[in-house]
Design brief:
By secondary structure, the chain is an alpha/beta fold. It is built from twelve helices and 14 strands. It has a seven-stranded mixed sheet. Strand 6 and strand 7 form a beta hairpin. Helix 3 packs parallel to helix 4, helix 5 crosses helix 6 and helix 6 packs parallel to helix 8. The two termini are 34 Å apart.
Length: 396
């Protein structure tokens, strides 16, 4: 078993841990913004390909106590780095995070770790200088209360970059966060889904990938593929195995609207790319079936009515970069109160950076999730029909 770390938006750790367990892996630790889990060596390709809510996957190369630089060097040097890399590897210590320990200089830690890895590789391969002419490999270092954890990046490009979103418009939601919101709402594929501010279509596309059971990593490469222990034949087997799980015949009603015609066209184009990629995955198992596309239309949210008696709305309404003033934002949120009438029996979830959203929309949420992806603090306001009407709710 190999210990892996999956990174995620802060506040979504429980969602990610549940997803990891559903994939059949055993979690062994949960910290702010990351979940640790055990993975068989012949399954190392699976988390990158299949996890919807993880931003990156790292392999835990070593853990040890490091109260000074000598201990840090020896701990890093003890790892058999020659098992991970080719001789022309281009090493990069991409991030160092220190908290509550005796080592406080990120730059010095970065330098010591890089030196220890290079010295170990040079000793193993009898080389004075590494050529560093090949593929880049990233190492990340966490030292918390003198306990050092050294991680090797298996993802490369962040996993939220599925490949389908060529144009995200202004301030789009991260794909992995969109996938998390679906889980916060306990959305099921048979439940109608609508996004009244579709923007670039991300929420609807992630709903479609989930509804038809399409692994989000099809159609892209991962840093794992550049490492010495990568098993390409096994990766092909896993791709075919996951392709066989795609359900193009599943029933789903996924729609999106936006007042901006360009946003609607952008959403359609992004959804088309995602579904074409899913179709190519199906070709791996000899199938020529197609994935149904989400439906996008141009309309103001105030002009639409619920197409079905019940369903789920999830939206990323404009804020910050997409509106010019706080007054505009508050005016929009006040207008959005009409959704509770036009979609009376629908559960709703709205993600925004505004802490005044409940006041502006005129209703208290059933639950509020504090989420942080990158440097942006956001709130996910959940409104459930049961709680609005005085019934019981399944949310905690």
């Amino acid at each position: 078993m190999t210990t892996l770390a999956a990174l995620c938006a802060i506040g979504t750790e429980k969602i990610l841990a549940n997803e990891i367990k559903k994939l059949g892996f055993t979690t062994c630790g949960k910290e702010t913004g990351r979940v640790l889990f055990l993975c068989p060596e012949d399954e190392l390709f699976t988390p990158n390909l299949c996890l919807r809510t993880a931003d990156r996957i790292y392999l835990q190369a070593g853990t040890f106590t490091a109260e000074d630089f000598d201990a840090l060097f020896e701990g890093v040097y003890a790892v058999n780095w020659q098992d991970f890399f080719y001789k022309d590897v281009k090493l990069r210590i991409d991030k160092v995070r220190l908290h509550g320990g005796k080592l406080t200089s990120e730059h010095s830690v970065q330098s010591i770790v890089h030196k220890a890895v290079c010295k170990k590789l040079g000793a193993a391969w009898h080389m004075e200088v590494l050529p560093e002419s090949g593929s880049e490999a990233d190492i990340r270092v966490y030292i918390e209360k003198n306990k050092a954890s050294i991680f090797l990046d298996l993802s490369g490009t962040p996993l939220n970059r599925r490949g389908y979103r060529k144009d995200g418009g202004t301030a789009p939601i991260r794909e992995t966060l969109a996938a998390s919101l679906l889980q916060f709402m306990y959305w099921k594929r048979k439940t109608p889904f609508h996004d009244p501010f579709c923007g670039s279509g991300t929420l609807a596309v992630e709903a479609a990938l989930y509804a038809y059971n399409v692994a989000p990593g099809f159609g892209r490469r991962f840093a794992l593929e550049n490492l010495a222990f990568f098993n390409s034949a096994r990766a092909d087997e896993i791709r075919k195995r996951e392709a066989a799980k795609i359900r193009p015949d599943a029933q789903a009603r996924i729609t999106g609207t936006d007042i901006d015609p360009e946003a609607v066209e952008r959403s359609r184009a992004n959804a088309e790319r995602a579904c074409v990629t899913a179709g190519r995955a199906l070709q791996l198992i000899g199938s020529d079936q197609r994935i149904p596309r989400p439906q996008f239309d141009c309309a103001d949210f105030a002009d639409i009515k619920a197409p079905y008696e019940s369903g789920v709305i999830i939206a990323n309404p404009p804020y910050g970069e997409r509106l010019n003033s706080r007054d505009e934002i508050e005016a929009l949120y006040k207008r959005m109160n009409s959704l509770f009438t036009d979609f009376a029996n629908w559960d709703m979830g709205f993600i925004t950076a505004s802490s005044e959203f409940q006041k502006c929309i005129g209703k208290n949420a059933s639950a509020v999730k504090n989420l942080k992806g990158g440097n942006l603090d956001t709130f996910f306001y959940i409104y459930e029909v049961e709680k609005r009407t005085g019934g019981k709710s399944g949310h905690i």
